[in-house]
Amino acid sequence: MKKRNLMIAVVLFVILAVCYLIIRTVNDRNEEAQEEQEAMEVQLLSLSADTIQGFSFLHEGTEYAFERNGDGDWIYPADENFPVDNDTVSSLLMDLEDVDYSRRLENVEDLSDYGLDEPSNVITVTDAQGTKYTITIGNMNGSTGDYYIYLDEDTDVVYTISSTIPLDFELELYDLVDAETFPSISADEIARIRIETAAEEENAENMENAESTENVQTQPYVLEIAAADAEESSESSEEETSAWEIVQDDAVQTADSDGVTSLLDHFGSMYYSSCVEYYATDLAAYGLEEPAYTIRIWTISGSDDTQSGDIVFYIGNMDENGEYYIREEGSNQVHTIGASSLEEVLSARAEDFLAG
User: Fold this and answer.
1) Which of 31, 103, 113, 228 is most exposed by smallest CB count within 10 Å?
2) Is the dihedral of CA 331, 334, 337, 343 positive or negative?
3) CB 280 within 8 A of CB 333
4) How far apart are CA 274 and CA 325, in angstroms?
């Protein structure tokens, strides 16, 4: 019996040793193939980002073209007021400084074999000497992840390049906008906040009794929370006092400090998801002519807690992605912001913050 077990152990050891050798051989060959592939890459194009004077790309069949002005900044000639983000463009064009190909296919007869008869993108670049280069992008090779392209008008030769350029140039116009960012607001900078809901549904009983929701009366709701007066707090009884008060209908109630701080902390992590229009003239299209919500924040600065001003946000409709349209007072830019960022702020009610 012991001899049999020993034989089984020896056989298993041999099998495991063979499996190990097979796996190692396969891995070594894969590494060699990768090294050979890298060694085969040949430079196809090299353009210094600083010397490029113009470029264009396609998005859903529309060409977007950009060029440098006399100051060297990028502009969008179709709308010269469009604020182009120079840093984003510079980073994008750096992709063109070293364009390598791994395969070269000659005597190509049918561009449709590579998706080049109906290209996914056509990138054109003009250098300082006025020389124009065109990269036409087709399908992705499912095995390697590379993309098929041809250069300029030479459709007889197709190259494969890495996915960097094809993916980075999958752009929309507003991917290159120099957009405002959400203001930096920390909880300890806020002296007062006022959240206004334009209209709020009446209670459920009214809703059930109404023949139509159009007949249900609505009313606005306002929540205002302010920092308690420091002098009054120090002159009050020795009992622990709150740093915040709820101001509602000319009445002042003590607020739970932890609850208020938690609410205000949300503003420190908020950010705009995207800029949808840099100069909006039709605010009604976003529900911002008569916004559903208005948030006004009074801030303080300096060691003496001097009030430095207020920031106002108008919040309108939701877009198809479930994000709110938002605009800051004094700005013409309309942005989107994630609903999850605003949920607890917009749903806040006075009873949520009453001190126990």
Assistant:
1) 31
2) positive
3) yes
4) 10
What digits encode the pLDDT tens for the residues 165-193?
Answer: 999 999 999 999 999 999 999 998 999 99
The predicted pLDDT at position 300 comes to: 85
**Half-sphere CA count of 337, side-chain side, radius 13 A:** 26
The answer to whether 189 touches 299, Cβ cutoff 8 Å, is yes
| Cβ atoms of residues 284 and 291 within 8 Å | no
Q: What is the DSSP letter of 70?
A: T
- Please tell me the total number of residues recorded for the chain in this structure: 356
Query: Parallel, antiparallel, or unpaired for β 132-140 and 74-75?
Result: unpaired
pLDDT band at 243 (very low <50, low <70, confident <90, very high): confident
pTM summary value = 0.76
Per-residue confidence (pLDDT) for residue 131, from 0 to 100: 96
Question: Of the candidates 240, 213, 215, which has an alpha carbon nearest to the alpha carbon of residue 228?
Answer: 240
Those residues with Cβ within 8 angstroms of residue 47's Cβ, 6 or more apart along the chain or in another chain:
93, 96, 97, 125, 127, 133
Collect all residues with Cβ–Cβ distance below 8 Å to 307 and sequence separation of at least 6.
191, 298, 299, 300
CB 331 within 8 A of CB 345: no
Compute the mean pLDDT over every residue in the chain, rounded to the nearest whole number: 85
Given the structure tokens 């995207």, which residue do they identify? 274
The torsion angles phi and psi of 293, rounded to 5 degrees, stand at: -140, 145
